[in-house]
Amino acid sequence: MFRRILIANRGEIAMRLIRCMKEMGIESVLAYSAEDADSLPVQMATESVCIGPAAASASYLNQAALVEAAKAASCDAVHPGYGFLSENADFAALVRENGMAFIGPDPETIRLMGDKEKARELMKKNGIPTVPGSDGLVDTADEAVRVADSLGYPVLVKASAGGGGRGMRRASCRDEVMAAYQDARAEAQAAFGDSSVYLEKEIVRPHHIEFQILADRYGGIVQLGERDCSMQRRRQKMIEEAPAGCLTPRLRAKMAKAAITAAKASGYVSAGTVEFVVDQQGNFYFIEMNTRIQVEHCVTEMETGIDLVREQIRIAAGMKLSVRQTDIHPAGHTIEVRINAEDPQQAFAPSPGTISFAHFPGGGGVRIESAVYSGSRVSPFYDSMIAKLIVHAPGRQEAIHKMRAALEELTIEGVRTNINYLYLMMFQRDYLLGQFDTSFIEENTEKILKWEKACRKKAGLTG
């Protein structure tokens, strides 16, 4: 087992990793930017090393600085968390070239599955349904128009190296294709250093369903059930839950089998997520594989009782999976919401600043993942997510009631947050009935914002 692991990340995921390492008796070395000098992870890690200034490009994305910090601290492994360099094949290779383990899949697998077009082709060869799309990359705007015409509208122009909704544009008619093509290429180049794109037929009003998998180097592969991530705003997940009410037992079994097949086909090792969309007729299609731990991994942990980060570390250390498929029995219902420092009433603009007071809810089946505390700062340099609130209960309605109670208790002052927005979402009739898809939040946001504004006015709150 590893003795010391460098954490190449920040915020709540850094705290999640530190806690797991403490439980495993592993020393943690946190690489942090000067902006995060007073953060909770810096205070809680065994050792902390400043690797650069606030800008992510000079700190959390500085591969050479991270590797040198790990070597100087005598680390034998590096955990990238999620975001930043977690799906960067070059970084994974650099870590290994310097004699340390990268806690994640092999560089070759990251590179293969990170290339969305190559991943699609691999899935097709292995009998996994994929969304109808272009035959390879689309090199010109004129070609994009021809392909879109053949697929039928609406279409999505998607970055081959993309993820998280970046490098993706929608075109609902012929006149919109060229602009979508140019915009997607520009964003893809800026975000990933790769402007290549392909086209897909847009599946209208789908469910976004992902399956969690774990795989070791000895042929052991398990799937730990699904998460419904359909509650999205601008293609960014806001609410995740399990199990997915839209799946029949038969469809769940077929998708689980496809997830295992995808892992085997790609030679996958570590924790990973196979993502699908499910259309209104119950057909499912592979969209991508995330070669890292997910933000919403806590949902699966609450459902199964299996520590995914612990398994990640064990696998990277050359150990076999500690569980078999017959050991995995998801139970109850889990809901996770992402708490962001943003102002819903101002187009969800980020709200950096100092948190003057923070109080987190507790009780059975309630879990908080966060790195904020009273007096901590929310930086304008990084993602606005400051916490995740997860609840687990025997059934979905009980979980919703528990989430309402937890959100009522959750208090963060000093910065604007989306807490009230999420709380009101828990009262939406169609959400309560499980009648939602990826369009739900966009279609209901205006109503919820008016409701929130009225509630604030009634309570005498201004600003």
Automatic annotation (TrEMBL):
SMART domains: Biotin_carb_C (SM00878). It is an enzyme of class 6 (ligase). GO terms for biological process: fatty acid biosynthetic process; malonyl-CoA biosynthetic process. Its EC number is 6.3.4.14. Keywords: ATP-binding, Biotin, Fatty acid biosynthesis, Fatty acid metabolism, Ligase, Lipid biosynthesis, Lipid metabolism, Magnesium, Metal-binding, Nucleotide-binding. Residues 120-317 form the ATP-grasp domain. Residues 1-446 form the Biotin carboxylation domain. Pfam families: Biotin_carb_C, Biotin_carb_N, CPSase_L_D2. GO terms for molecular function: ATP binding; biotin carboxylase activity; metal ion binding. It catalyses: N(6)-biotinyl-L-lysyl-[protein] + hydrogencarbonate + ATP = N(6)-carboxybiotinyl-L-lysyl-[protein] + ADP + phosphate + H(+). InterPro entries: ACC_Biotin_Carboxylase (IPR051602), Acetyl_CoA_COase_biotin_COase (IPR004549), ATP-grasp (IPR011761), BC-like_N (IPR005481), Biotin_carboxylation_dom (IPR011764), Biotin_COase_C (IPR005482), CPAse_ATP-bd (IPR005479), PreATP-grasp_dom_sf (IPR016185). Pathway: Lipid metabolism; malonyl-CoA biosynthesis; malonyl-CoA from acetyl-CoA: step 1/1. This protein is a component of the acetyl coenzyme A carboxylase complex; first, biotin carboxylase catalyzes the carboxylation of the carrier protein and then the transcarboxylase transfers the carboxyl group to form malonyl-CoA. Acetyl-CoA carboxylase is a heterohexamer of biotin carboxyl carrier protein, biotin carboxylase and the two subunits of carboxyl transferase in a 2:2 complex. This is Biotin carboxylase. It comes from Porcincola intestinalis.
